[in-house]
Amino acid sequence: MKETTRQKLIDATYEEVYSHGYQGAALADILANAGVHKGSMYHFFPNKKEMALCAINEKMGERFDNMYRGIAHQEAPYLPRLYALIRDTSRRDFKRGCPIANLVQEMSNIDEDFNRTMKEMYTQFRLSVKAIFDQAIESGELKECDTAKLALFTTSALEGAILAAKASGEPQDYIDAVECLIGYIESFRCMHP
User: Fold this and answer.
1) Could you count the other beta carbons within 10 Å of the beta carbon of residue 172?
2) Per-residue pLDDT tens over the stretch 86-104
3) Is the overall model pTM greater than 0.85, yes or no?
């Protein structure tokens, strides 16, 4: 029962913060959406901030585990799975944008705990993409290259593509940017005889 209550709070907090930002997230709405009383919240979290940071770590960490980290732990080929993932528009919410980027823009200059948490998220995102490229080199899909820089470019391009689609309201902007990104990654392909 306790874990169910905690999970409801985590899920409701994540959705509220994703939809309205941390500063716009209303504790009363979080509690109502979770179906939890304030006293029950205090059993798990001392305040809204700690609950939000926990939701960010758990929900976004889970999202990246499901999306990117698993690719490098599978068998080759790696690039087709990466391309399928980044082309999959059903995994993105173009109206709300990227939850990490939204919080970086809102909170990184305001709160050191949020700043540190978001830096760790971006670092993990880049390292997950780098691991995919490292495996692609090892499997002969990519030629030797600086995978840290390629991962930085890839994650930056993806974040920019999501922002472009959010700003324009046109998912096609994301699709077009991703195809350009894939074309760039393909320029590192090994040429087999």
Assistant:
1) 11
2) 999 998 999 999 998 999 9
3) yes
